[in-house]
Amino acid sequence: MENFEAMYQxxxxxxxxxxxVIKSGDWVDYGWAVTTPVAVDRALxxxxxxxxxxxxxxxxxxxxxxxxxxxxxxxxxxxxxxHASGIGRKLIAEGLGFYMPMRYSELPRYxxxxxxxxxxxxxxxxxxxxxxYFNFGPSxxxxxxxxxxxxxxxxxxNKNMPRCLGGMGADVHISQVDMIVEGDNPNVAEVxxxxxxxxxxxxxxxxxxxxxxxxxxxxxxxxxxNAVGASIAQSDLKDLGVHTEVYVDAFVDMTMxxxxxxxxxxxxxxxxxxxxxxxTKKLYDFLDNNPGCMSAPVDYTNDIRxxxxxxxxxxxxxxxxxxxxxxxxxxxxxxxxxxxAGGQLDFVLGAYLAKHGKSFICxxxxxxxxxGTLKSRxxxxxxxxxxxxxxxxxxxxxxxxxxxxxxxxxxxxxxCEAIISVAHPDFRDELIAAxxxxxxxxxxxxxx
Length: 448
Description:
- This protein is 27% helix and 21% strand.
- With 448 residues, the chain is an alpha/beta fold.
- It is globular.
């Protein structure tokens, strides 16, 4: 048996030594969500002005990397994100970054086939186990594929990183690692969920009515899907399963309330399957060494064929706005970038293909601008430049606080009528007028 501890000592480097391998023009992968590096990022920031055109690649970054805090970072470094958080949005808006459009389930394949291979991969990991493996923590996602193709692999060990069990794609062996950095062991970044609004609670009520015992649940990112999870935790539902892209606090609440056991799942029976996780310390403590949870690569969790194999699958995701044709935008406001496609289309398609499966796109009917103006999220057509995340042919249920409608199989006028029926009452007349101009409204339609 190899002496992994001796190998560990041979590969142990300072953060400065690790940062020194990065060259101008390099593509540098920066982990995913909570595994974004800290110590090596800080060391890189100290020498970033020596370099030019360093292209950092990552996603769902939860704090501003130190390399962007130097004077005039634009001359030296840029952020390329697979999915934008609030920080990522800000970097893009400031001209410091760009979004990389993707369907999340395809991301590992992108790495294995992409024309811009990773020069250096750096990510936080849990401490090495006795078999020589470093765990990816709550971010299995696409990390295995990224490391396979990276020219140099640097792991930044964090004793506070939870060890998230999986069985595939959740770890990297020391033999695949070039450098090991022992960081300052920062606490894992927390992403608390805001308290649900009354609108969130009403939307959740409509969705929970549609969930049968034994269903398998996916929740997207955001307050509304979390409100659904909270409602499930307080419901009479039982024998639920979990198969999701992102694991959030609501799943912990559902499990602790006795709603989740996974015994009805067709695959991964008894285990809660996810690609990455972010939330509060409660979530990280729950996932740590928990054999009831399964961290897995995104090309497994989000594969339409995997999702479709799970009976009674229920997918719940957010939208920015929806138009009268049933097109869903979940990633931009006009040309202003917000988040990304993520796995929404994967779950919209996979859930509908599943036996007795249902896909829900939910949003509040309105939002209020900074100047206090009330605006409808249901529009005649999407704003110019807005991105169609889920096409009109693929959307199943749409839910607002005014109700839920099943759009499958409807003609354009029926679909339009259904969508307007869940719009805010103050906007229905103008939506009807717009629908008439677009020739998708019949005189016999209900006067909503």
